[in-house]
Specification:
Chain B: It is found in: Cytoplasm, Cytosol. Chain B: Keywords: Cytoplasm, Initiation factor, Protein biosynthesis. The complex is a heterodimer. By secondary structure, chain A is of the alpha/beta class. Helices cover 34% and strands 17% of the residues of chain A. Chain A has 3 domains: 17-282, Spore Coat Polysaccharide Biosynthesis Protein SpsA, Chain A (Alpha-Beta Complex); 308-472, 3 Solenoid (UDP N-Acetylglucosamine Acyltransferase, domain 1); 534-725, Serine Threonine Protein Phosphatase 5, Tetratricopeptide repeat (Alpha Horseshoe), CATH 1.25.40. Chain B is α/β, with parallel strands linked by helices. In chain B, 53% of the residues lie in helices and 11% in strands. Classes of the chains: A alpha/beta, B alpha/beta.
Amino acid sequence: MAGKKVKDHPKDEMVQDDRLQAIVLTDSFQTRFMPLSYDKPRCLLPLANVPLLEYTLEFLAKAPVKEVYLVCSAHASLISEYIEASKWNLPWSPFKVFTIMSPEARSVGDAMRDLDNKGVITGDFVLMSGDAVTNLDFDKFWDFHKKVHAKDKDHIVTTCLSKATQFHRTRAFQPACFILDKSDNRCLYYQEIPLPSSKLKTSVEIDPDLLEGVDEFVLRNDLIDCRIDICSPLVPAIFQENFDYQMLRSDFVKGVLSSDLLRKHVYAYITEEYAARVESWQSYDSISQDFIGRWCYPLVLDSNLMPDQTYSYESSHIYKEQGVVLAQSCKIGKCTAIGSRTKVGESALVENCVIGRNCYIGSGAIIRDSHIWDNTIIGNNSVINHSIIASDTKLGTNVVLNDGCIIGFNVVIEDGKELPRGVRINGTPVKNLEDNGFGLSEDEQPEEAPKNTDLEIAFEFCGSKGRGYLYEDPLSEDELDSPIGEEMISGLSHRLDEVYLSDNSISSVTKSKKKRTMSTNSVYTDREDDPTEYEDEEDFGIEGVATVKRAIENNHDLDTALLELNTLRMSLNVSYHDVRTVTVIALLDRVYHFIATQTLGPKDATNKVFARWGPMFRREAFDPEEYIDLMDVLMEQVVLQDLEKRDLILFSAFNTLYDSDILEEEIIYSWWAHVSKDPKFDDVKKVVAKWVEWLQEADEESSDEEEEEEESEDENDNEVGSEDDR
Amino acid sequence: MSLPSSAHSSIVTINSSDINVTIEHFIARLKRHQIDGPYAMALETLQLLKRFISQARWSHVSELIEKIRQLANRLEKAQPTAFACGNVIRRILAVVRDEEEEELRSNSPQAASSSVAEPMISSMFNLLQKPEDNQQKQQQQQKQQKQRSTKTRTDFRQVAIQGIKDLIDEITNIDDGIQQIAIDLIHDHEILLTPTPESKTVLKFLLKTRERSNRRFTVLVTEGFPNNTAKAHEFAKKLAQHNIETIVIPDSAVFALMTRVGKVIIGTKAVFINGGSITSTSGVSAVCECAHEFKTPVFAVAGLYKFSPLYPFDVEKFVEFGGSQKVLPQMDPEHRLDTLNSITDYVPPENIDIYITNVGGFAPSFIYRIAWDNYKQVDVQLEM
C-alpha cells in the first residue's frame, strides 16, 4: 500500500510549480474520542453525516494538489478500505490518494520521520490533519506562500491561522500564543498557553535575541490554529535530525524558531475564513453546529458532496434527504439535518440535531442538541439532551439521556433508564489501550492504562437485557477524589477537556471548573481576576517536579537539587508538604522510567532511586509528623500514578528509606497505626503490612535479646532486615 | 471569451479521453461552487454538451433527447441554485426537438398540418379534449418515422452542435445586444442606482452608455453588506476610472436617496417565467420594493440564457444561503443565535418594470412568451 507508484502527470505547464503534494495525518495520536474511536478511526466518524476525512479531502480538492498521502496508524486498514471505495479513487478524482501505513508512529514527529525515510516528498507539500473543516481559499494561501518563499530563502513553513472572534467556541481547545512580526507576519515565537480552566499562571517568555531586528511585533492569542501548513521539503529532514521532536507545534515550530543553528523562518497566513479542527467532543459539537449553520459556505451539506447524498435545504437551516418520513404532528426545529429513510414519530420534537440514515425516532421523543448516527432506534417518549449516539444503537422507551452522554456503537439500553450527565458507554468493552492498536497517544502514559475493572455490562445504565460497557476515562480516575464535584461533568466536552489537561502534568489536579473567561486581548487578564491560592500550588507542582527530574537526569548532587527546590519553595511560598509531594512524584517517575525501559525490575529500581535520592527527604521533613506525612504522600502517589506492582514499589521505597535511616521505626509504627483506611489503598498496603509486622517482630526479638543495648537497636535491625531482604 | 476557454482547457487536461470523466469532474466542480457566475457556467456547460453530443451514440433522436435530459438533470442537481446549466441545455433540447418536428412534418404532411394547427388553439380546451388523440398521433408518427428513419434522417448531431455553436456565439456577444438598447434609456444628468455591483452586464451597460453617448450621469452603488462589499468598491472604482460620477452608499440609505434616483438598474442571475428574477446580491429585493414605492423605474438587464422556464413556486428553494457568521460574527458559545445570510435574492415581477435583454426590452408579464419561444414545455421537468 505504501504507494510510490507516482504517476507522471501530463500537465507540462504545471510540472515545476503546481504538482503539489499533501500529507494528511489521519491519526490524532490522542485518545480524546474514546470510546467511539475504539471501533472506528476518528477521521471516519461522521460529522453532520459526512465522514470527517471528507472535509479535508474536499478542501484539498479545491487546491492544486495532485497527490494526497494519508498517513494511517490506528485502524489503518479501515481507512484504506474506505478510500478505495470512495469517490477519490475514481478516475475523475482531482488527485491520487495513497495510504501510507505507519503503524509504529506514535506522534506527528514519528510520522514525519517515517515519511522522510520512505522518500515520498519531492517538493513543497501541504501538511494537515485529517479532521479539519474549512472553507479556506487555498489559492490565496498558496500565493502567500509563494510570495514569501520568493522573498525569504530561509522560509520553510507557512502556517494557516484563522482569526477568531472573542466568543468563538473552537478557539478554547488549544490556546496558543503566536508572536508575529507585524510587517510580514513572520512568526517569531510560539508558546502554548494552558487552558483557562487549568488556572495556571500564563506567561510568555521570549528570548530577547529573537526580537532582534524586528521593528514591531504583535502577540496574538486570538488565532485558531487549524493545522494546515505548507511546508518545504526540508521539514521532514528537520524532524529526522531532531529525533526528539514529537509535536508539530510545541516541539517543531518552537524548536525551529528558537534554534540558533537552523535559522529557518515560519510565516503565518492569517485568514478570516472558517477553519477549525475536530479535536474533542466539544469541538465536534460546535463545528457540527457551525457546519449546519452554513459557516463553511460554500462547503455545505446540501452540496451533497458524498455521491449518494440527496440533501435539500429549507429555511432556518433544516436539511432533509429524500425519503425522510415525518409524522404529521412531529416538530422539526432549526438547525437540523435528517438522513434518508429516517422516520420521526408522532409529536416528536427534534431540534438542533443531526440525525443519520435509517433511524427511527419514536413518538413523543424529545431530542435536542444531539448527534445521532445511522441505524439508531430511539423508543417512544425518550428524552435526549446534548448527547452523541453512535450507529446501530437501540434505546428503549422512556430513556433519558442527560447532557453529555456518549453512547457507542451497538449499545442497547432498556426501557425507562436514565443516564446521568457525561456517561460514556460503548458496545464493546474497551480493554487495554495498548491491545487495541489505539494506544498511540503521545499523551497517554502506559501507567495510566485502565484497569480491567469495568468489563462487565453496565447493568446500572443499560438494564438487565441491555448491552453496553461503561467507559471510564483512564485519565480521569485520579481526579475523582479532587474537589471537582459535579461541575466537572458538565457535558460531553468540558469534561473531556479537563481530562485532557490532567495528563499533561501528573500533579496538576483541576480544582474547579469555570467557564472560559472572555478575555482575548490580554493573555494575562484571564487569571488575574481570580487570584486563588491554587495558582501557586499548581505552578509549583509542575516546576518542582521538573526541577527534581532535572536533578535526577543530570545527576546533580543532593545539595544543588535541594537548593533549587528550596528556592522554588520560597519564591512561591508553599509548604514542605508540597515539596515532599513533588519529590515523591519525581522519584516515582524515575522508578517508572527504569521499569518501563526494562533496565531494572520494580524492586531494584525503587531501591536504586530511593537510596540515591531518598536523603533529600531529610531536608524536607523535620519532625515525626512530617515524616508520617511523607509516608502518606508516598502511598498516595504510588496509588495515584497507577504504577505496575505498586505494592512492591511502595514496600521497597519504605524499606530503602528505612535502611538509610530516614524513616525511624517509631514513625513507621505510628504511621501504621493511623494509616488511612480508604479501600483504594488496600491492595498496596498488603505487602507493607507484612513488612511492618516483620519490623515489629524483629523489634520485639531484638529488644528481648538486647535489652541493654538500646542505642544500637536500630542498626541491628537494619542489618537483619536488609539481609533478609536480599 | 478567454475566461471560459481557459477554464475549459483545464477540464480537458484532467482526462481528455473519457467523456464520463469529464462530466463527473464538471459535476464535482459545480458541487464545490468552483465555477463562478452564470456566464462561465453556461459556456462551460455548452462546451461539455458539445463533446457529449459528438461522442454520443443513438439509434433514434428520442434517445439522444433522453440522454441530454439525463445529463441536464444531473447538472441541475449538482447545484440546484444555479440555473444557467439547465437553461442552456434546455435551449439545445428545444433546437433538437424543433428539428425533429421539422423532419416529421416534411415526411408526413398530413400529420404536420395538425401538429402545426394545434398550438394555435387555446391550450385549455386542448388539454381537456384531445390528449389521447395527440398521443396516438405521436405514436403513429413515431412508428412511421422509425420505419423511415433508416432512409431519411437529418443529421441531428450536426444540428445540435450547430445549435450549441450558435448559442455560444449568442452568449459571448450578449453585451452588445444589451448595450444597443442602453443608450436610449439613460438620459443626461440622470442619477442611477445599482444594487448589483458584481454584474458584469450592468458594468458594461454603464460604461458603454458613457462611451457612446457621452452623457453625464451619476451612479449610486449600494454597498451590499456583508457579502458583496469588496465587489461594490471594485465596481465603483472601475466606473470612476471611466469618468462616471460614482457614489458608494450604505444599504440603509437607499430609502432616503430613492427620491433622487431616476432609474434603478439591476443585474440578474436567473429570470423565471413569471417575470420574477434571482439576483446575485442580497438586498436587491428591498431596493426594488423601495423603488416601487417611489414609482422609480427598475430596469433589469439579462442575457437570454438567463431566462429559465421554471416557475418560482417555492422561492426558498431558489435562494441560496451563505455563512451566517458574516452577519453576526460574535457568538456566545452557550447561547447560539443563528442568523440567515441569503446570498441571492428574489425580486418579484411587480417590482420590475422592464427587462432589457439582448433581443430587446420586455415587460415582466411578457417574459413567458420569450421563454416559450426558446424552450419546450416538455423539458421543464427534467426528472423522470
